[in-house]
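User: Sequence in, structure out. Go.
Assistant: Echoing your sequence, followed by the structure tokens.
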Amino acid sequence: MIKIRISKNDSDKDDLVFFKVKRITHSIKQAIDILKNTKEGFFASTVDSNREEKLEYENIVYVEYLNRQVFIYTSTKVYYNRTSLSQFKKQAPNYLAQISKSVLINLYTIKGFQTKLNGNLLVTLNTGEKQIVSRKFVAPLRRQLKLVSGAS
């Protein structure tokens, strides 16, 4: 059982997170990774209304580069940002992994994957969306998955 105690401290400039655990489980490792790698949010325009909204990286399911724009997919909305995929990736946390020339996925949204005969992977995300991992990106993706899952 996990007990959570939260206390607000207005005197410190930075937030402080303290974990007291018997062992570091996958869930705790995931929480630590998200806390370490969460950067300030960024602004992106919504596709449906052309209005800018603040978006946090952990809400991203996947990112796709099309027509010189980055399209950002969350579980509820689609956003776009006029930037290159490489520039977006530089600013993004390491749990947004590149799986092809034009797509990044949030490793924490992976529900499962299957190997295809041609060496590609078919990844199923928790939204039901399916993405193809190009052969070139299969080994790096497996390494990143091991890092975020804490496996040796």
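User: And one key feature?
Assistant: The mean pLDDT is 87.
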